[in-house]
Amino acid sequence: MKLRVKERSDAMCGKGDRVIRIKQRQDVTYLPALISLYLIIGLTAGRKVSLPVGPLIRVEGEAVSLLCDVSDYQGPKEQEFEWKATQASKTIQVVSTFDTMFPDQSLKVRVHANDISVVRIKENAVVLMIKEARVNDSGTYTCSTPSTDSVISGNYEADVLLKVIHDTLVVVPEVPAPLVHEGKPINLRCNISRDFTEGVYLSVTWSVKKDQSPEQDLLSFEPNSGVTIGKNFTQRYTDGEMYLQLDNTGSYSVVLSGAVPADQGIYVCTAKQWTREQGTWNLIQEKATVIGEVTVIPTGDSLTIQVLDNTILNEGDSLNLTCLVSADELAALDLEVTWLLNETLILTHLSRDRVVANTSDIISLNQIGEGEFRLKIHNVELSDEGLYSCRVGAWIQQGRGKAYQAAEKVSAPIQVVINQQDPSLTVTLKSPLIAQYAGDPTELVCQVSNISNYWGKRLGVSWYYSTSNGSQVVTDVIASLNENGAITARDKYRDRIDTGAVLVTRIEPATFKLRLHHTTNADVGEYVCRVSTWTLTRLGSWKYTSEHQAHAIKVSFASKAPGISVIARHKQQATFSGSTFEMNCLAKLKNLWDGMTLSVLILVQYGVGAPSRKLASLSPDLVLKVEDWYESSRQHSLNLIKTGNMEFLFRIHSVQMMDRGFYYCEVAAWTKPDGNNWMEITKGESNKIQMNFEHRMPSFALSVTSDTTSVYPWETVKIDCIINVSGSSNTDNVAYEIRWYRSHLRESDSFVLLASMDRLGVVRKSPRNDTSDCSLERLTSRTFTLTIHGTQDSDAGEYYCTATPWIRSRTKEEWDKQPEIISERVFLRVKFALWESMKLPLLYGTCTSLTVGLVSLILGLLCSLCCCKNTSRTPHPRIKLLSKQTD
């Protein structure tokens, strides 16, 4: 669209006035659309200043903050702001971000005191802060920004209405009882008053502070009349144990119907005032007041239990025991009473619903008064004797029929004694068969006689063995036969009883027998039997009532006791670390019959007074067993063999410093009385042999050998680095680090590292620029081979190796590094092979020449045959020669 402007004079407009006339062509119809587009762009684009949507209600004394920001502006990023307030028809300047003289005279004191301030939070946003609002601060606040735009568009200021109301909120709590018994209610009352203001809503929150724990909310009455329950009190609110009470007088109460010890603490009531701004609740005032501290007295603190009445009775009497229960608020408790015998057996039980369990004509339980419960047992018997106690559980009712056990206590037990007449028992121990020699059988019979009132009773027996160890008598239990006839064997005799070498039997109701099939030297001593009586109780179980002991019988051999004397001797003394130690053990038998088989056990003491350690043993079946040997890797160094009928040889290869000590043998004689299992008859211990030598460190030397010192290119060379050790033959505790070096010239000190191997066997090679390659491997424990593959001229030179020994210390965990050892040098020469280098080129050239000549000959022959094949058929014409003149 094109516009033309024409100036003309008009008398109606006055002389000199100019009238601008717009003429349009055919496209003048688009002018309204264009104008509308300009209006839309003008309305949607440009600077925009924003404030919260009002009106805003605040309480005097509380802080007020008004956020103002600007967007879609031009100019510098950081914008300046000015705040003004309009009250009635008067507008005053409040504060500015760039002009310190901007505030009105009436506000300068508050601005200088920082009660009124403007805080920049972003380049395009500031907050007007009023620390303590006043009622006369109410009014319309305007936030404006100076123009920095090239074109004026949008809005440059925004308004919000602020209303500051008087502080009329008053919170007055009613102090609850400071001490509350468990199960009683806790009433938390809070009285709240305020002046009504439209748009302002009230909420109330109850909370508790317990010891060092953070404050927990119980219940909140929200501004929208809803109720929010604290996460730790949801179940109690659901069960009706916590509820809210409201009235029209401004009284708000939360009641905990059944207090528990966990409820004690400091309770706080918090009142809050809210406003609804842009669909969101905004807190404008909060006041919290302590209601009071409540201590809950646990039921268990006051619960006491005592058992009264008679405790010494005769058989057939009636037992009467009273359980006396006392506690604070006893009437509000539901009691559960249980009578116990010997702390575990439940005699009878009274539930909190007053239902009695385990009652009969003999046992009864009744409540005879408040907190008094009587147990009565008619016609007591010996099995009723014991410790009686009363266990009481105190239950407290909660909401909706629920109850919980608040406390449980057990009274101190009282001893009830039943007088009885001991049964007239006579126990006699007889010995129909006594061993005369080791290996003979022995039988002992325990006879019970003069049994009175045996009806309803059973007998058991226990067999005991005693021996004198100097001035001390040692007694062991062999086995016991209980009232049901079951045998209980002790550890020392369990194997012999399980195999039948020792028998414990009842041959008659009142007669018991102990039989040793093969009596050994260890069985010599005194034997005794003890008979116990058992009575059947009314509960169907057997109870121990008495015990009677017979006189002891001594078992000994008619001849001298068997024995073994053992002598240990040096066969080869260890003189240095790595040498071999050998010890002979020679046994001599005393008073033992033929057919004995020997076993041997080697022991060592690593110091004077040190405990003995088992090293190796050879069983009667000649099975070698390594016992408490400290190194599993050295088990092959230990050897124990039988070299004769009564002789054994013990050997340690490659001894170490840690092996020094006192060595001795223990030889035992065995027999198979039942043909299946070995039984030890006697044993003896030898003298001690000392192994002692000075520690000598091994010495090391290196030697270098090669399969050849002169090679042709592309051949393989092997050079061995051999470590020679003297002073110790043990290589298990030695490891080596190996390095190979090379120099291109003789007698040169410029060597380069080719390859290395650490003491763990990890190989590392240096980078190479040659076409040849090298490798390092360990052939034996002390031989390390360097192999050069595809030898080149650059591999010629001197070679040598170094070794760094590492020796493992006595602790078996630490390795000691030794000085480095350097070998002699060996020179490798790579020969120049003239014929080898020329034979291939000569062969290739000869073959090529012969091939080219043969091909040329064949081609010439073929060409001659093709060109001369028609000569006989077509003779050449004869042409006369021309004369010189004609030519």
TrEMBL record:
Gene3D superfamilies: Immunoglobulins. It is a single-pass membrane protein. The chain crosses the membrane at residues 28-46, 842-868. Residues 32-153, 173-271, 298-411, 423-556, 698-804 form the Ig-like domain. It is found in: Membrane. Keywords: Disulfide bond, Immunoglobulin domain, Membrane, Receptor, Repeat, Signal, Transmembrane, Transmembrane helix. The keyword Signal applies. Its main location: membrane. The keyword Metal-binding does not apply. One of its GO terms (cellular component) is membrane. InterPro entries: Ig-like_dom (IPR007110), Ig-like_dom_sf (IPR036179), Ig-like_fold (IPR013783), Ig_sub (IPR003599), Ig_sub2 (IPR003598), Ig_V-set (IPR013106), IgSF_V-set/TM_domain (IPR051102). This is Prostaglandin F2 receptor negative regulator. It comes from Bagarius yarrelli (Goonch).
